[in-house]
Structure formats: structure tokens, C-alpha cells
């Protein structure tokens, strides 16, 4: 009997791939490319700023790219310990991230950490974000009780 290998991914693997794609596209993609990871009726909460609908998400991402990403070199986001719960065609995810880069001007190392808190939907066989909250923890004290708050949602 011969085992066959298929290219079919499980829902869990598709969600993990989406989480990773967000990191790579955030590091070097366009606002539109990042926006393609969200459904048109998606929502983001980024450092306290709420963007409702794909148009405002992409607009907010472009402002972030121009103001925050453009002055950096070598930006890389890394995700850790994804906690994914799937219920049919909906899912939630909490995943820690670390991001680092260097300032183009002075070469100074910049490091951030935080958590992404997500709601995802599968439509026509494809998983995308319906909501993504990005919490930025600038110091260890910023997130002392954050995971407990996130789990209570």
C-alpha cells in the first residue's frame, strides 16, 4: 500500500499560514497586499486606532508604512505560540509577536513586542481576518496582565 501526499492544508494550517503571511507582508508588502488578508468588511484596532472596512484599513496601513516603516531597514516580525480555536467557518487566534529593525538615519536598533488578537472567517474555502487587534508592548510592564484580559474576551 502506497501513502499519497496531498497539497491540501487543514483549516489550522491555513490560519497559521495567514498569520505568517501578515508578518511578511507587513515587513515588505504594500498596504494593498496587507489589505488582501482582510475581508472587505474587516476591522483593525492598531495601537488604539480603529479602522472599519477595507478602505480605511488600507488607508491606515499606508499612513503607517509612510510614517513608521519607511524610516526603517531590516524590519522583521516574528510570531510565537499561536493559540487558534476553530468553530466551523469562524476562528479566533491569539499570537505573540516580536518585531525588530534598525533606524535608517542612525542605525539604532528598535525592538517591539506584543500580541495579535484575531477573529477570522472562512469564506469560499479561504481564511481571512475579519478583525485584528494589535497590542504594542513597549516594556515588560505594558503587558503584565494583557494575556488574562485577552482570554476573557
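Q: What amino acid sequence fits the structure above?
A:
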Amino acid at each position: 500500500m502506497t501513502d499519497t501526499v496531498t497539497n491540501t492544508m487543514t483549516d489550522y494550517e491555513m490560519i497559521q499560514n495567514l498569520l505568517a503571511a501578515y508578518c511578511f507582508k507587513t515587513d515588505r508588502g504594500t498596504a494593498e497586499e496587507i489589505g488582501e488578508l482582510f475581508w472587505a468588511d474587516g476591522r483593525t484596532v492598531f495601537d488604539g486606532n480603529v479602522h472599519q472596512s477595507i478602505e480605511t484599513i488600507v488607508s491606515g496601513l499606508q499612513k503607517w508604512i509612510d510614517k513608521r516603516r519607511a524610516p526603517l531597514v531590516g524590519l522583521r516580525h516574528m510570531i510565537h505560540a499561536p493559540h487558534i480555536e476553530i468553530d466551523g467557518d469562524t476562528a479566533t487566534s491569539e499570537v505573540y509577536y516580536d518585531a525588530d529593525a534598525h533606524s535608517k538615519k542612525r542605525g539604532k536598533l528598535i525592538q517591539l513586542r506584543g500580541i495579535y488578537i484575531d477573529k477570522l472567517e472562512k469564506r469560499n474555502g479561504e481564511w481571512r481576518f475579519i478583525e485584528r487587534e494589535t497590542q504594542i508592548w513597549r516594556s515588560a510592564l505594558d503587558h503584565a496582565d494583557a494575556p488574562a484580559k485577552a482570554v476573557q474576551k
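Q: And what stands out in the fold?
A: Residues 1-5, 147-153 have pLDDT under 50 and may be disordered.
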